[in-house]
């Protein structure tokens, strides 16, 4: 593929620390010597790939301290991607809530209307233009969803996707639940998850 110069090739290595573990540990005897050969082979292959102008190599890691320094030195750009922002947390939870309603797991019976949850920017505009006492229906649910997103500060995207499942599992009657009760449970579940992170 790389020999076709008009083709842009992306190579993604997820959890790169499993391949590029620091060789210092192997030298001290706490890791098998095979790991040194793996890292050496990886570095050699990366150097060969980098000679092609149409190749971009990207890697991810949650344990950056475990990556071999020679591998890190070869990186042109190192970027830290932190936990999701408030807007991202809201959008993740919003998509989960809409899917639960669509699948019939949660029932929204506000005059038999479909539950339409605005995106983060639209919600902020609406909340800014209305008094809190004027909130009703889906907008009130969205405000509660925003509170849930605020309670999730510091949680990873993976945990956020799992959060609605955990909240639903802790409902006293999961077969018959409206989104309002569900969101109350979601906020409690988020607070519990965040408190477990801080322990």
Query: Biggest sheet, open or closed, and with what strands and sense?
Result: 2 strands, parallel
Order of helices and strands: EHHEHHHHHH
> Beta fraction of the residues?
5-15%
What value does the average pLDDT take? 84
In angstroms, what is the radius of gyration?
A: 23 Å
Alpha plus pi helix count: 8
Q: How many beta-strand segments?
A: 2
Shape: elongated
Number of domains: 2
Q: Helix fraction? A: 40-55%
Structural class: mainly alpha
Strand order of the largest sheet: 1-2
Gap between N and C termini: 48 Å
- Low-confidence segments, given as residue ranges, are none
Q: What does this 3D model show about the protein?
A:
With 199 residues, this protein is mostly helical. It has 2 domains: 9-73, Rossmann fold; 86-197, no CATH class. 51% of the residues lie in helices and 5% in strands. Helix 6 runs parallel beside helix 8. The mean pLDDT is 84.
């Amino acid at each position: 593929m790389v020999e076709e110069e008009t083709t842009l090739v992306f190579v993604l290595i997820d959890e790169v620390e499993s391949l590029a573990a620091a060789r210092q540990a192997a030298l001290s005897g706490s890791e098998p010597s095979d790991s040194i050969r793996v890292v050496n082979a990886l570095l050699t292959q990366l150097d060969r790939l980098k000679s092609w102008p149409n190749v971009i190599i990207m890697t991810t890691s949650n344990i950056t301290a475990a990556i071999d320094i020679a591998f890190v030195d070869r990186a042109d750009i190192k970027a830290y991607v932190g936990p999701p922002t408030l807007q991202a947390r809201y959008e993740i939870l919003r998509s989960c809530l809409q899917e639960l309603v669509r699948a019939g797991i949660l029932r929204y019976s506000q005059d038999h209307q479909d539950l339409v949850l605005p995106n983060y920017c639209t919600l902020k505009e609406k909340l800014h233009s209305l008094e809190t006492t004027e909130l009703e229906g889906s907008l009130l649910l969205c405000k509660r969803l925003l509170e849930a997103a605020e309670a999730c500060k510091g949680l990873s995207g993976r945990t956020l996707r799992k959060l609605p499942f955990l909240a639903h599992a802790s409902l006293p009657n999961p077969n018959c639940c409206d989104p309002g009760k569900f969101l109350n449970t979601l906020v409690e579940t988020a607070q519990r998850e965040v408190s477990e992170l801080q322990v």
